[in-house]
Amino acid sequence: MIKQPTLTNELVELDKKHFIHPTSSIKEQQANGPAIIFKEGKGVYLTDVNGQTYIEGMASLWNVNIGYGRKELAQAAQEQMEKLAFSSCFATFSNEPAIRLAEKIAQITPGDLNAVFFTSGGSESNDTAYKLVRHYWKLKGLPNKSKIISRQKAYHGVAVGATSATGIEGFQNMTSSLAPDFLHVDPFSTEAVRAIIEQEGADQIAAFIAEPIQGAGGVNIPSNEYFQEIRQICDEHNILLIADEVITGFGRTGKMFACEHWNVVPDVMLIAKGVTSGYIPLGGVVIREKLHKEFIELSEGTLLHGFTYSGHPTSCAVGLRNIQIIEEENLVENSRKMGEELHKQLKSLQSELPVIGEVRSLGLIGALEIVKNQKTNERFPTKVSALVVSEARKRGLILRTVTFNEADTIVFAPPLIINKQEIEKVFEILRASIIEVTKNL
Ligand code: PMP
Predict the structure, then answer these.
(1) What class of enzyme is it (predicted)?
(2) Are 357 and 371 in contact (CB under 8 A)?
(3) How high is the ipTM of this complex?
(4) What pLDDT digit, counting tens, does each position of 280-315 carry?
(5) CA of 428 to the centre of ligand 1 (A)
(6) Has this prediction a pTM greater than 0.95?
(7) 157: CA distance to ligand 1 center in Å?
(8) Does 287 contact ligand 1 (Cβ within 6 A)?
(9) DSSP reduced 3-state for 46
């Protein structure tokens, strides 16, 4: 009898042959096939095509804030698709979900961040922001203000501009050339920002961009003073402040937006991911009323920047429903409360296991460092975090690592709906995985 290929085997072969994966090792895919083929999600749990379940420690890519399987979002998409799935917003055409979502974002973002340019994701939001701030200075008669100061270890996406702003070498080295006029400074030092402004001249600088908490760079949390000082420096030198809240927005850190922790209102805020909890692609660039007014006053003719999907009615309808759920279910508060639980668990693991170095978290975003020596921070010769994450996966837990340069880091960003028992489960599996992997090192 001929053995029938199983569905899994068939999918693995087709994946290898036809699917080029984002941010993945092509060699590894060809050797082992896709790591997991997911089939379903419910709450904080995922199930793969073989029926194995996993608890989600990363909300996929830091974005499935309200958890999986929410019928309300499916319903919002269905209703909108049946009414008007898509229509363009070019040439001032408009649609109700885009208008309503823009209003909602204006309400929930801090200060006078009141007007939104919609994109399809974080990278587009970044490239849009760089063009808008340069356009702004051009309209103001200061076209030389074009340089963008970014930070080492920053991650801003993979469009050419966003890659150029990114401060992680691997991403930057992938191609032979990048966009000009991006500068990178030490991510924790305001002195470094002052120094580069001095060196380059404020009249050459359009904007400073930062993630309030660096995500892909290893969950790096600034000091309490950092962003207030940055705000002050930007004001002193007539430089616009862009906050990339693509990961940190929509409740991730225990506030609706992370810059609220330090009472800082950026001139431009970038959003994506959590705006729809990843159910459908959507992003945006939110600008302060003052800037919006200046654009209205100074602009002439057509703003020659727009994505086909800017203001996509179905995406916007899903975004609106998603934000309602975050509000109705107090998920920002849950993120804050469960964040304390996450922090406790990190601390307790650190005091128990000698291979855990620094731990850090704010709300439901966190990280732990794997070290050979807790006192000296000496690292193991191999990236132990990668082994731990792979062991955890076998045991039914999804986590991610950050391993560029020195880093040997495990990062956390569970869905905001997670409860205490589920956090305990994450740490139970993680603890067992670390013990298993490090017992022979
Ligand atoms: N900015 C930040 C801070 C991000 O973390 C990401 C994605 N991880 C992006 C931008 C890029 O977003 P996207 O992948 O949706 O283009």
Answers:
(1) transferase
(2) yes
(3) 0.99
(4) 999 999 999 999 999 999 999 999 999 999 999 999
(5) 30
(6) yes
(7) 5
(8) no
(9) strand
